Amino acid sequence: MAAVEVRTDRFVLRPWRESDLDVLAQAATDPHITSITTVPATYTTDAGYAFLRRMTELSAGGVTVPRAIAEQATGSVVGHISLRLRDLDLGRVGLGYWVLPSARGRGVAGESVAGLADWALHRLGCWRVELCIAPWNEPSKRVARSAGFVREGLLRSWQVMGGRRSDVEMFSRIRPPAPEPDDD
Ligand SMILES: CC(C)(COP(=O)(O)OP(=O)(O)OC[C@H]1O[C@@H](n2cnc3c(N)ncnc32)[C@H](O)[C@@H]1OP(=O)(O)O)[C@@H](O)C(=O)NCCC(=O)NCCS
């Protein structure tokens, strides 16, 4: 799993590399990203390298698969997407993501989320892909819908987000069971 790369029309979702350090400096300027992810709120070179090391360790551990979203045409990294495998043995995985402010509004998140969800459902063989989205996060809810996810409901006090207990809206995509064979 550590080396897996997933391709969409425009992007390759690939492991983070040490040479991606400048991307973290840009991501750290966005308070939305730093408030709900582990991107360091106060960027330093050391904090950036620590983030990249953690991504490599998580990949090797096999419970979370973090991937940089890189443009196929230029190689530029424009965001991050992560697959959580904690409940894979139950057939469920989760996704988290962010996109650099300079790359937003071009469908980066929608295409990457759709591509990694397709991969999880059809190549990894899981049955359900989940997105937990804060109720105020309208852009992320639009990403979910554009990637074919369906809103299921509000989970009250579900997790800590940005340092405080938060409700989340649960969105999912599922793999339909194969049809039963005809009796006749
Ligand atoms: C949410 C986020 C990932 C969206 O990335 P993106 O690449 O700009 O998303 P897309 O271009 O695929 O846009 C998806 C939809 O959101 C809409 N959108 C984008 N920014 C928006 C905004 N500020 N307000 C409302 N809608 C917005 C787009 O118009 C598009 O809607 P459409 O498909 O109906 O036209 C990005 O804003 C981000 O990184 N936010 C901070 C981190 C975060 O919230 N991560 C998600 C945690 S669940």
Structural class: alpha+beta
Describe the strand arrangement of the main beta sheet, using strand numbers: 1-2-3-4-5-6-8-7
Uncertain runs are: none
Bound molecules: coenzyme A
- Going by CATH, the homologous superfamily would be Gcn5-related N-acetyltransferase (GNAT)
- Domain count: 1
Helical proportion, percent range? 25-40%
Calculate the terminal CA-CA distance, rounded to whole Å. 42 Å
Shape: globular
Which CATH first-tier class would you pick? Alpha Beta
Summarize this, please?
With 184 residues, the protein is of the alpha+beta class. It has helices spanning 21-27, 31-36, 45-61, 108-122, 138-146, and strands at 6-7, 11-14, 64-71, 77-84, 92-99, 128-133, 150-161, 164-174.
Could you characterize the architecture of this molecule?
With 184 residues, the chain is α+β, with helices and mostly antiparallel strands. The chain has a single domain, classed as 3-Layer(aba) Sandwich (Aminopeptidase), CATH 3.40.630.30. The protein has 5 helices and 8 strands, in the order ββαααβββαβαββ. The chain has helices spanning 21-27, 31-36, 45-61, 108-122, 138-146, and strands at residues 6-7, 11-14, 64-71, 77-84, 92-99, 128-133, 150-161, 164-174. The radius of gyration is 17 Å and the shape is globular. Bound molecules: coenzyme A (COA).
